[in-house]
Amino acid sequence: MPAGWKHTPSGWISGNCPMCSKRGHNPDKRGRGGIRFEDDHFQYNCFNCGFKTGWSDGRRIGGKLQELLTTFGTDPADIQRVNLELLREQEAGDIAGQYIEKPKEQKVQIDWPTVQLPPNSYQIGEYPTKELDKKQLDKLALACAYIMKRGLDFCEDWHWSPHMHFANRVILPFYYKRKIVGYTARWVPEHRPDAMPKYYNQMPKNFVYNLDKQDKHNTVIVTEGQFDAIQVGGVALAGNTPNSIQCKIIEDLDKQIVLLPDFDKSGIDTVNVAVKNGWAVSFPEWEDDIKDASDAVIKYGRLFTVKTVLESIETNATKIKILAKARCR
Ligand SMILES: [Zn+2]
Questions:
Q1: What local confidence, expressed as pLDDT, does residue 102 receive?
Q2: What's the CATH fold of domain 215-327?
């Protein structure tokens, strides 16, 4: 390791990431690169530029790791020599049948099937209202009012359907590669019968919402709910504890990952997943009664909300845990 890299209590060795400037970011002066060694593997992760690489037993030194090592000052001839040795080991291992190519290094193959929205769904603003009776029109009006009230009217893709309980909901289609692969339908009226779920979800396995919208950002904001994700232009997990495939799908975007947890009890579980994966976490200084991005937007507006999320990014695992204890309760 180069001089100046320090061990942290969480098991990482951190220091200034040499890749930031190479990847078009400002040079790292805040020790946002981190490397973690374990028994048979290690990982490198930068919270600033999002550069990620590593090595595990049975593998050779890959292109990204080579780039990191040479930036650190390793002689390329040494890398080549070690790789030859690893190749020999690998071949010997293959014969012994010990090493199987580890699938986690490959991108997750996403195969979410296309689905239909509920019957007679149309975009809310373009609903053919001639076909609706008075009662249905009232419900449609209520759905529109809900979207306005929550500051979600900039997103034009809200749908509505007069079909059964959907009449009392606003429908948000889930797109992947511009095809509808699911939706959530949120209950609108103040009164909700006990057995009636607030969100009616139709989503594929290991779903991550809003991947299509991530190509323009350097930073991916991860939220728990889809409505929060819309507000901050981020992605959403389905639930507060994503599984390893969902995490991998987000990491496959190859960007800086920042979790914006819900500031309630369950938020702590999501924070733990983030820390385990080496993601950063944002703790914006919002007032106490604000639990998520949706609340914040109503109070502060969208621009201010996104600005505070991006300005309140914490990358140090110990600090993240302390802040989570104080804020997620
Ligand atoms: Zn970096």
A1: 47
A2: Dna Topoisomerase Vi A Subunit; Chain: A, domain 2 (3.40.1360)
